[in-house]
Structure formats: C-alpha cells, structure tokens
Amino acid sequence: MKKQIQSIGVLTSGGDAPGMNAAIRAVVRAGAYYNLKVFGIYEGYQGLIENNIKELDARSVKNILNRGGTILKSSRSEEFRTEAGRKKAHQNLQQYNIDALVIIGGDGSFTGGHIFSQEFDLPIIGIPGTIDNDLYGTDYTLGFDTATNVVIDCIDKIRDTAESHNRLFFVEVMGRDSGFIALRSALASGALDVVLPEEDSPMQDLFNELEKGEANQKTNKLVVVAEGNKMGDTFWIADQVRDKYPHLESKVTILGHLQRGGSPSCLDRVLASQLGVAAIEGLLEGKSKVMAGLIDNKIVFTSFEEAINKKIPLNKELLRISKILSI
Ligand code: F6P
User: Fold this and answer.
1) How far apart, in whole angstroms, are the C-alpha atoms of residue 289 and residue 102?
2) Ligand 1 atom nearest to CA at 228
3) pLDDT tens, 268-279?
4) Of 24, 127, 314, 320, which sits most exposed with the smallest number of CB within 10 A?
5) Where does 172-202 have alpha helices with state H?
6) Catalytic site residues?
7) How many A from CA of 30 to the centre of ligand 1?
C-alpha cells in the first residue's frame, strides 16, 4: 500500500509568472486545511539541491495573493539535469520527511519533475505557471492573462505616439516558440498584422498587409511580432520594411521582461486558487506525474508527458477575426 502523504514541498521553477504567488498561497493553505505539513523550497530545483527549504503555515502566505513574481524565487537549474544533482535533492527531501511535491512552472520544470518522480517514486503534481500558455491540458496557464493585459496596455500607449507621428511600430512580445501572447494581444490591440512562430508566412505577406494599410489610409500601423517567429529578428524585419518603404517611419519596441511583472489579473488569481487546491487534493487522492489544469471551467489532470509533448494548435479563428478587423 502507498504511504499516506503527510508532508509536501512546493517550489516555483523556470520563468516567473504573475499568479505564482496566488498558487503558492493556495497550495500552502489547502495543505494546512488538510492537516499537512507544507515546506516552501526556495529558488526552484537549485534550492532543493542546496537545501534552501523552510516550513510554511497559513500565515506565511498572507498578503501575497495580489503580488507579481514569486516569494519562493525561481531558477533554471543545470545541476538538477544531472543524476548527482537530483540525488542530492532527494536526500534533502528525506531530511524533512517531505513525501510529495507541487511544482509550479512550465514544460522544462515538468520534464525535470517527471524524471525525479520516476527515479525516486515520489508523488509530484504540476501547476502550469508560465506566461507562454504553451502547455497542453489547460485552457490557460498562470500568468498568460496578466501578461497579455500588460502587452495590450503597452500597445495602447504605443498607438498614441504612433498615431501622433503617423508611424509604423513593430512590437516584439515573448512566448518563446509559441504565438499565444502575440495572437491574442494583436487581436485585442487592433494590430494591423501579427508575425507568429506557428506560421511560415513570407515577408511578402507582411508587405501586402502594409500596402493594404496604406491604401486604407491607416495613419498608425502596429505589427505584433512573436519573439520565436520564423521570419527573423524584429530589428531585421523592420530593416527589410525600411528598405522597401523608405517613406514609412518604422520603429521597434521590444517589450521583454515587462511582460512577466505586475499584479496578477482576476483570472490568474482565481485560476491559481483553483489549481492550488486541485494539486493538494490530487496528491491526497494518489495522483502523480500529472499537471492540474482547467478546461472549460473543469479541473482536469493531464500526464506530464502529454502536457509537455502534445502540441496545441494555433487558434486559426482568432487569426481570421484579427485579419477581418484590421482592414
Ligand atoms: O517562458 C517564459 C519566458 O518569459 C519566455 O516567454 C521567454 O522566451 C523566456 O521566458 C525568457 O527567459 P529568461 O527570463 O530566462 O531570459
């Protein structure tokens, strides 16, 4: 018979995302509700290797629901990729009698969690925490909604100055090799065009959209560029456009890590609370090597393997709508 879980550890790993604190709070408080001991593991897997572990109670997580970043801090640990690193990590868990883990992070964090869980027969549940929204098994990952709200707020501001000077702006957004942030924010900010990693669109398509914009007397032109697109670097794209249309004044704005900060949106706080409780209840029910997600407003557990490897297709309908409305 499986050992009854009495004590769990929680950590945040990979790129931070707004809503991670709300998820930590939910995990700690749900743990307390079910009479579990809860340990916070600081600085992700690296902290686990370095024994950076502290017990948390319901009051340790007060006033964090509304805060961006992660109070547990995060890291991308190279050492945890090695067998020796994971062995040290496991020894530290044993020292505190931690018998299950909740990992809040993205695909890289779940890959590490999956291996760790297999090697040491340790129950682990993941909570999707990444602004990229690139995990299969949930409609939204934590931080995606907040990040896209940050992006549209920035693009609204860029629009003001673009309109005043009749300028063309290329706005680069994050998302690694997926275009969820780009597509959603392009639609929500009324961009003229969007360059996505999921599309193999040639430069000529962009030229066509720009010419259409000119013909339709668009005075400002905003193009959202996903960082992982196949066309090229955003500055390079802007150079090609400058060469072809010297009369268009083209500017580039890279939004960068701005997108990862700020107070989480209502959607992210609610999602974090739901997934935090689901993770604890899932562990108590004997689940492991799965990610807790929300699909059509229902909690769904998806195996780590599927969450990491299954591709989420681009929402072509959003792209179609964006094209119709950007004339
Ligand atoms: O995965 C989240 C993310 O913000 C990506 O969108 C981006 O490509 C990457 O992390 C940046 O990573 P770092 O903060 O380590 O530079």
Assistant:
1) 10
2) 8
3) 999 999 999 999
4) 320
5) 180-189
6) 132
7) 29
